[in-house]
Each structure stands twice: as C-alpha cells, then as structure tokens.
Design a protein that fits this description.
Elements: H1 3-6, E1 8-13, E2 18-23, E3 29-34, E4 39-43, H2 44-54, E5 68-71, E6 76-81, E7 87-92, E8 97-100, H3 102-116
Antiparallel strand pairs: 1-2, 2-3, 3-4, 5-6, 6-7, 7-8
Length: about 120
C-alpha cells in the first residue's frame, strides 16, 4: 500500500459538517460528505456533480410544483411546512434524503459556501 492510498485530506469544513477525500485500495479518490446525520461517499464523477449542485443558487422563494428550488440530475433540495409547524428542508442526494431543520439547512449553506471556494 502506498502513502497515496492511505492519505486522508479535509477538503472543506463548516462548523458541524465536512468533506474528506480518501483514496480507495486502487488509489481512486473517494469523497466522504459528513452531514452529521449521515456520511455519503462519492467517487470523482458524483463529487463533481455535488460540487455543481453546491454552487447553485438556493432561493426557497422560487420553488417548482414539488417544492424543489435547486436541483441537478441526482441532487435536489426542497422544503415542507405544515400550516403551524416549522420548516423542514429536504436534501435528496440520490441514495438518501435528509430532513434538515432551518439551523441545519443554514449550516449546509455554510458548507456549500466553502465548496464554492474550491
């Protein structure tokens, strides 16, 4: 095993979330997106799409008929709100959907701001 296979690098971090890059057994980079509730692992192509997603404009006043206000082929974000309840943001990452509180959503946007700087 080479040192390249063992390397772990923090790509970006916000207060509570982070993205790590590690190399698999063949030396291919694997990106670990740690969102507190779960860790999503992406290979290079998926990571590039996620970076594209993170660079979109997130304006929840501009939703489609499904409540989606930002999306790429495999990622989307929308929100739901009961009449008297709190807002929950739904981050759909293809293989998993996360329900985020407003505070968690703000933290996600902080992580996305860091990703935009890459």
């Amino acid at each position: 095993m080479t040192s390249k296979q063992n390397s772990t690098e923090i790509i970006v971090r916000s207060e509570d979330y982070l993205v790590l890059r590690v190399n698999d057994a063949e030396g291919e980079p694997v990106y670990h997106i740690d969102l507190g509730q779960c860790i999503i692992r992406y290979f290079e192509e998926e990571w590039l799409e996620f970076k594209e997603f993170a660079s979109l404009e997130f304006d929840d006043s501009k939703t489609d008929e499904n409540g989606i206000f930002a999306e790429t082929e495999n990622n989307a974000i929308s929100y739901v709100q009961e009449e008297t309840g709190p807002i929950y943001y739904i981050l759909d990452m293809g293989t998993v959907s996360l329900f985020l509180t407003e505070e968690e959503y703000d933290e996600l946007l902080n992580l996305f701001d860091e990703i935009k700087r890459l």
